[in-house]
Amino acid sequence: MGDFGCIAASDYLTPAENWLFWVIWLITAIMTCIIFLNFIVAEASASYSEVSEQLEEYIQQQRADLVAEAEALSPDSWKTESRYPRFIAIRKVET
Hints:
Elements: H1 15-53, H2 55-73
């Protein structure tokens, strides 16, 4: 909303001009706040829609990272072919 240096000029106005000055200043301040809030809501909505589009991929990536970290932390004696197969194939059928 900027600098309020122009407010000092209201001391030199007539009472009618002073009243008009404060009405215009108040309307300008309120409209500026509404415009900025509208912009913030629009940006938050755009960010939410962008994240929600990629949410499933993000979840799967995080799950894969956790599995890789858990595998790296387990001792080598536990890493058998039955516990850690080289490939995992999953087939999903839509119903």
